[in-house]
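Let's sit down with a protein and look at its sequence and fold side by side. Which protein we use is up to you, so please pick one and set it down. Label the sequence line and the structure token line clearly, so we can match residues to local backbone shapes. Go ahead whenever you are ready, and we will take it from there:

***
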Amino acid sequence: MAIRRGHKRLLKLLLITLAAGAGVWFGLPWLLPLPQALNTPQTPSPRYLSKDGIPLRMLLTQKGDRVAQVLRFEEIPTRLIQATLAAEDKRFFDHGGVDLLAIGRAARDNLSSRRIVSGASTVHQQLVKVAAARTGKRTLKVKMIEALQARRLAMQWSKEQVITEYLNRISYGNLLTGCASAAQGYFYKPLADLTPAECALLAAIPQSPTRYNPFRQLTAIRPRQLRILGKMRELGWLSEEQLRVAQKEPLKLSRFHGGFEAPHAVEMLRPEPRETTVTTLDAGLQRQIETIITQRLAALKERHVTQAAAVVIENATGHVLALAGSRDFFATDGGQINGAWVPHSPGSAIKPFTYLLALERGATAASIVADLPIEYTTPTGTYRPENYAHKLYGPVTYRQALGNSLNISAVKVLSSIGGTDTLLKQLQDLGLTTLTEPAEHYGLGLTIGNAPVRLVELANAYACLARLGIDRPWSLIAQPENTPPKRRFDEASCYIIASILSDNQARQLTFGQYSPLRLPFPVAVKTGTSTAYRDNWCVGYTPEFTVAVWAGNFDNTPMQEVSGVTGAAPIWRDVFIELQSRFGVTWYMEPPGLIHARIDPRTGKRLTPQSPPARISREEIFVIKHLPPAASAEDYDTRGRALLRPEYATWVRSADNWMGDLVAIDDSAQERPWRISNPIPGTVVRLDPDLPQGGRRLLLETTPHREVAWECATLPIQMDGTTAYVELIPGRHELRAMLPTGQGQSTYIIVHPE
């Protein structure tokens, strides 16, 4: 009877003990909340990716680490999970958050060794520890709290959720948090590409990221890596053959500091608040363009060309596929300056927009402009444009004038279509945000690039030409377009501009037959060179792509006679060759409403079966309603020479006459009325020291041109070749022009001092 009562007490005590244990095991953990961090979604580092997902740059989080990606369970390779469990918690799928068997084993080993030789911390406990981020001494109380929280975690979360959070949150050293960051930071590859040996190496690090830093202690981490591989074999997770291969695999580390690809483009996006910013950049193309810039600038070093920038736009979308702002972001000579954004003078790269506006107003590619000296009176003095080669080209078609980039012709064309206001408004509408001054500030020199613009903005203006008049904003971020495309220009006129800019023959007088602008496929292209060789440009396009290049020096010192065709154009050429090789390029189908006709380029008139035989001709493209008049017998002399107005007389006799015996002066025009056209009576000139020669030089002209003798009692008449001019001084001056017959006209001007 006593034995039975003893059994009952023992049984009761056992039940109480079991109930208490069950309460502790199953109930007490619910009294402790999980660390708040486990209830807060993990935030990855702000990242910038190329359009195809290649990392360009990963910034630090607010905690000062890098979190490449927050992964789902199915995105984590099974081999990495196995390596991690072999290293940290081989009974992970069997215990309830706290491994009692491991605790017993650890207690036995530590007691027998009289020191701590092993631990029993599970993945659940380590995850709680990481999430709690406790500092200070790890007391028994702290460990008990973590154990209870680990039990609650095991009852509340699935095993898959626990291992996923652990691998996303654990530190792998070197500011790398999470296994995705570790794979990228140590091997510069995605997790899915890791080998078993690489997985084992990563699994070895979290126990002591400082002691097992692969970049400092690869030999120290090697034994632990091999032990992990051995455990994986013991647990049946590796075959013997897989183990042997993993043990012999040489480890090749590749340090990743967060990436620094396309630095100038990323810096332009840095204010973006997004966690992950997918850019429009093509990483491979970006790297190749940076290489091209470096190689080409090396060849120009002796001519003091130290920097260049390039932009590639995909015309269909407005996406910037590549943007390089300097030779080297880390260069000490201004490498961090973004040449694609800092404004520079574009030179002649503005001219196509002047001619496009003229075409829209009824001019044609065959229209004739007199490339002869001219001066314009402005509020600040006189303005006298000069051609780059300091030559005069006489009668030239708009095709020749634009193709050969003639300054005098461009200024005259702009003047004929309404002046600076007309061009300025169009450029502003196209997004050239640096043009903030009134038209009077720029004057007619706007068409030859006297106003600084940004490379990327000018590139997008050219992309509008490439789309045959359709404007859309440029973008560095791959996102749906919010601004609808807008037609800015007439399709047919844009096609004619593309025809001119792709015509190698049209630019032959200035650039020759075999310049860098001649590619093995059709491309529309225009160069630009600013005053004193401080900037040069090359911008061109096909239907698919627009490429813009600037070359120069960030300290604004001049290059040694390097023009757009010798500085920026070789870079531009190499970039377009690369685009053609990677993606292929095409050319335009001719839009409706155009017609082809032969013209005489000396007069711009159309040649018909009824026209006299012309000694030279070429085919030209016209909008049907803008066909030029037909040539007639009155346009030629008996030798077939084209008859020019008297204003060309001096040019015909000069060394600049590249047409030779193909032209002659129309003597019958000598009887027509004439007048003094410059200066007009009552002209007021204010001398300005900021103008060339202080604005003192005043050209003397008649319309139409006459061979006259100029007279002035207060100013000496001077000659520049066959051109008459005066050097102005303050006062009122009367000038007189006399024909050989004695007929004369007079005018007067008033000159104010500086």
About this structure: The chain has a mean pLDDT of 89. The chain has five domains: 1-30, 32-41+72-173+192-248, 311-582, 599-657, 673-752. DSSP finds 22 helices and 28 strands in the chain.
